[in-house]
Every structure is written in C-alpha cells, then in structure tokens.
Amino acid sequence: MYTLQILVNGIVLGCLYACIAAGFSLVWGVLNVINLMHGSFIVLGSYLAWGAYNTMGISPWLTVLIAAPLFYAGGYLVQRGLLNRVIAAPVLVTLTLTFGLDLILNNAMILAFRADYRSLILDPPLGTIAMGSVVVPVDRLVAMLFALVLTGVLYLILRRSRVGRAIIAVRLDRDAATLMGVDVKATNAAAFGLGAGMAGCAGVLMALIFPISPLSSTAYLGKAFVVCVLGGLGSVPGAVLGGLLLGLVESFGAMAFGPEHAVTLSFSLLILFLVLRPQGLLGKRGFE
Amino acid sequence: MSQASSIVTVQSRSALWRTLGCGIAMTCALSAGQALAQQTIRFGAPLPLTGALAPEALKQQQGYDLWAEVVNRAGGIDVGGKKMKVEIIYTDYQSNTPRAVQAAEKLISQEKVDFLFSPFGSGAAKAASTVSERYGVPTIASTASSSQVYDQGYKFLFGTFTPNETLTSPLTDIVRKAAPNVKRVAILARNDLFPLAIAQEMEKSAKSRGLELVLFEKYAINTMDHSSALAQIKAAKPDWIFATGYINDLVLLKKQMGDQRIEAPVVTMIAGPAYQEFIDAAGAGAENISSAAWWHPASQYNGTDVFGTTANYVKLFSEKYKSVPDYAQASASVSGALFQIAIEKAGSLDKAKVRDAMAAMDVVTFWGPVRFGANGQINSLEPPVFQIQGGKAVVVFPAAIKQGDFKLGVK
C-alpha cells in the first residue's frame, strides 16, 4: 500500500528536522543558552539562498558553503558581544536576551523582505525519482544528504578538533578548563558560532523545500524544541534520532489519526518524554 | 506716590484687558480647533500589520488608502451639504484575534472613530462585531465570507463577500459541464474558520450534484509537511482535488503534490491562486489550477461609486501601487466607497441613520451590484470562477466577462 511511501517521507522529513535542530541542541546542551533566534537564523539562511540564486544564479548547494562561515562569524560576534555578558546567569536570563534579539531580527526581516511567502524554484527543476511504488522528490533527497553530511561534520568537529574538545571541556567543568589553558570566552563564542552556522546552512536547504517568510521562524523553532527533548540535549546523534522519531511519528500519525492531529501528536510525544524520560533518547550532561 | 499707583492701576487694567483678550482668543482658537477636528470623518481599521496575516493586512491597507486618497482629492464626502475629508486610523493587532477585539474597542471608545472596518478574516470579524454592535458603530467586514459571521442577529455589521456556497456551486457546475467524467472528489482543508467552511460547502455542492466524495481531511494550522495527507489522496485516485488554506499552505501543497507525482484532471485551490504571489511562487505547477473569488479585475461593472467603472478602479490602483489589484484590495476599497454612499444618502454622520442607509443599499459599484441581506451579508454578487492558464488568471465564468474556456489536467 502506501505505507512504504509514508515511511520514506518520514525518514526524509526526519533528517531535515535533525538538521534544523542540531545547532539548537548544541547551543542549549553545551552553553546552556536557549537560543530563541535559531528559527530566525534559519529563515535568514533561506533568504540568503533565495537572494543568491535569484540575483546571481548561485546554486543553493554552493550557498551552503558560503552560509557556513558567514553565519559562524555572525554567531561568534553575537555571543562574544552580547550573550557572553549574561552567560553565567540563570538560563532564563539568556532566554530573555535571545527573545529580545529575535524580536529585533525577525521584525527587521519583515521590514526588509516583507512578510509574503517566497519560493526558491530551481530552473531546471530537479524532479522526482520513482523507486517501485515510492516517489521521492530529488530536492528533498539531496537536502537530506546534505543535512546528514552537515551533522556529521559538526559531530567530527566536536569530537576531533581542538575547538570541539575545548567546547566540551568548558561545559563539563569551566574552572578546570580555564586551568587547562582554555580561553572560555572564545570557546563559548565558537560554540554559538557553530550553532548559528548550522542554522544558516539548514536555512539554505529548507529554502528548496518550504516557502520562505520571516513568519516561519516560530515553526522551525517549535520543531527544534521537540527534537531536542526527544533526542536529548547537546548530542548530535541524539538530534538525528530525535528528528527521525519526530518525522516518523508525524507521518504515520497523520495516516492513522488524520493530518489535523499530526502536530498535536508530536507535542503529546514531547510531553510524554518530559514526564517519562526527560533526558531524551541519548541525552547526557555535556557531551558524549 | 499717586502717580506710581495710577501707573500700577493703568498697568493692571491693561493687564486685565490683555488677559481677557487672551482668554477670548484662546476660547475662539479652541472652539475653532474643535470645529476643525469635526471636519474629518474618522474610520477605524484594526489590521494584522505584523504576524502571520501581515500580507493580507498590506492588501487591505492598500485598498483603504486608495479610497481615502481618491475621495479626499475630490474634496471629501458630502455630509448634508458640507464636504468632509476622510481619515483612516490604523491599529495593529498582531494577527491575534483577542487583540483584534481589543483594538476595535480602543478605536471606538478612545479614538472615537465614527465608523469601523472589520479586522481581517471571518474569525476576527465575527469576534470584533460584538464590540461594534454594543457601541452601535456601523461596521463593514471586507474579508469575511462565512455566513457564520453574520448569524448573531446584529444590525450594525455588513459584509462585502457573498457566502461560501456562491463560490463552490458555479464551480461544480462548470466542472460537470466541462468534464462529465469527473466523478471522484477529494477535499483537503485547513482547520481554520474560512478554509474549513468553504470546504464543507464544497462537500455539499459536490454531493448535491451526484459526485462521489472519496476523501475529506483537515490539516492543522502551521503544518510544515503534507506528505501523509497527499499520500492518502494519491491512494484514493480522485478526479478532482479541492484544497483550501491560505497562500503559504497552498504553495507548499502544490509543490508536494508535484513531489509525489499527483496528477488530476481538476485541481481547485481556495484562497491563493487569485494572488499574483501564488502564481509566482508555484511556478509551472500552477498551470490549470482553478479557483473562485468574489471579484476579478477583468469584471466590467459600471458603478455609481467614487471609482466608477471597474476599469477605472484598476487604472487608479495600478498607477498608485504599480500592480494589478486582486479581490482583497478591491473589497477594502469598495467598503470605503459604500460608507461614502451611505453617509451621503443619510445626509449626516448619525450612526443609526447611516446604518439604515447601508441596510437599504441598492447600487451598482465597480465591485458589482450591492444589496445586503437581512443578516448584513451581501447577496447580489456573481463571483467569478477563474483558472491559471499560461501564468495568468483567466476568467471562465460568468459568461459576461469570460476570457477563456475551462481546461483539464493538472500536473
């Protein structure tokens, strides 16, 4: 029947959700900062892709490579300049600060780009692939692959690079890290920069799949929240698993209970996890 | 000493005259100022200028502003022999319906507006109408079509959109005539007041004409992925897919329909295809999508309102905004024009008199013939059905303004 199609849809969607959430999970789990600007970063990345393609003909696959350092730099500056002043304060303080910054960013985008929805339409279109009875759009498939590669790169950075190990060290024990010669301020900024970079790249990929508007930022943020709770904070494999779980639950839930309940279902799952397993599927303190 | 005292007396006397003179001048200025303030007619317009419905608010604002500009350029509205200019006071309710009600209350009680334009959409219009009814302020809803909005027995609420079934019935008849083989209908509706209401009307229209309803599903507001719903639709093999929502939902739906290679002889979407933004965003996939709306710039009405003919309205709009108006802007402009006709007929700004003049309205405007039913909703329009052909909206009904024939096949 069409169960196989729904399964494939769920997996592809899940990987996209993982990409949306990976940066958010990193910043929350490692810096203890709930970055409410995450959704707006994603939308900004989408606009970058749209602008680059429609004015200069740059393919979105290339724009991903441009977005990564651009958003990293932006995130680094925001953290170093603003968030670092309240990094030691309770999490609600940073949440309020990022909320305020998000209001500024989001409304600036509405002013600059207007709130109408735009689409990034590739010319020529990538089309669809049929594998038996299952049809998969190529743009979603390639976006899914890019998303997996990006999360893989993030994982490797955190595990293998000096910056990555420093980030984890600061989270595990800030004072010990300082004693080891780690520059805490720079490391925090790097972590936030990585999160922002991921968001920007995710935005470029999302531009191909969803309509672009500053009004979508809350939708992306909502998904990121749910994926973080499901998968566990600060864990990149957790983000992937959480994303897949969410994607599959929404797809099969829509089939079983009707599409109007898909969103309710995902948030019911969120509540269930918060009650039964608040650390999520793979969550650990700091990083594994 | 006596000289000094006489100087003081003279000075204090002239000071007294000075004070009196200032006082008289101030009173004159104040009353003149108040009289000046009464030179403009104040219209309140609560709009979702920020938030999810911001694109809709922009269209309404364009419509209201164009009307205000045109009417003020002609000197203003004739109120019992005296010409008074028009002033529109906007308030942003951030796409939040409870705030829309508060905004309406503030405009009426604090800003002291004479008349009110409803907030956007059936839901918010219904909610805010309670406020205007309580204060007895004539209100026109320029974007509320669901008859549920007008079922509270209110006397001060009027609407420029005809009920939803006036969109679905002619459409169903056209499809039956153009494609007698179309038998199976699938409906996917956004779980929101207007999109759901019009989907339910479509269900009734389809069933009453003997079509088979193979699927009726709703999707939640802010759904980012329709794959499952569309997979179900594909499995049901419909001949006619009817999807409702707002522009962002429908653009995403059409794209995902293409992603899953869903094709059907007839695909209808309400309410997005009327907007040029939909055609641009949907690209080649928009070809042969049909829709219905309450007005189309190709209409040819000869109105007695301040805009005159439909062509003249389109010309004035295009000159000001460098784009062709769609039904949203036109509805906003005609709401203003209808207030003008009612005020001029009543000869005063008395709210009860203007209300009665509105209820007895029977005119032809650039929007079409306007007569209101007992519940305040317009019942005299013949909404056009159109189809996107070659990247443009082509009217296929009514015959008087037909531009092309209905085509089958949507990929």
Write up what this structure looks like:
- The complex is a heterodimer of chains A (288) and B (411).
- Chain A has 288 residues and is an all-alpha fold.
- Chain A has one domain: ABC transporter involved in vitamin B12 uptake, BtuC (Orthogonal Bundle), CATH 1.10.3470.
- Chain A has a two-stranded antiparallel ribbon with strand order 1-2.
- In chain A, helix 2 crosses helix 3 and helix 10 crosses helix 11.
- The termini of chain A are far apart.
- With 411 residues, chain B is an alpha/beta fold.
- Chain B has two domains: 196 residues, Response regulator (Rossmann fold, 3-Layer(aba) Sandwich); 146 residues, 3-Layer(aba) Sandwich (Rossmann fold).
- Chain B has twelve helices and 15 strands.
- A seven-stranded mixed beta sheet of chain B has the order 8-7-9-10-11-14-15, sandwiched between helices.
- The radius of gyration of chain B is 26 Å and the shape is elongated.
- The N terminus of chain B is likely disordered.
- Chains A and B meet through helix 1, strand 2, helix 10 and helix 11 of A and helix 2, strand 8, helix 7, helix 8 and helix 9 of B.
